[in-house]
Amino acid sequence: MNTEELKAFLENLCLMPSETEWVEFKKAKNNIHFDDLGKYFSALSNEANLKRLDSGWLVLGITDKPPRKTVGTRYRLGRPSLDKLKKGIADHTTDRLSFEEIHELHLPEGRVLMFQIPPALRGVPTSWKGHYYGREGESLAPLSLSKIEQIRRQALREDWSVQVCKGATINDLDPEAILKARDEYKVKYPQKIEEVEKWDDIRFLNKCKLTIHGRITNASIILLGKPESAALLSPAVARISWFLKDENNREKDYEHFDPPFLLNVDRVFSKVRDLKYRHMPSGTLFPMETTQYDHWVIREALHNCIAHQDYHLHGRINLVETPYMLILTNMGSFLPGSVETVIQQDAPPEVYRNPFLASAMVSLNMIDTQGGGIKKMFETQMGRYFPLPDYDLS
Question: Could you tell me the pTM of the whole model?
Answer without folding.
Answer: 0.58
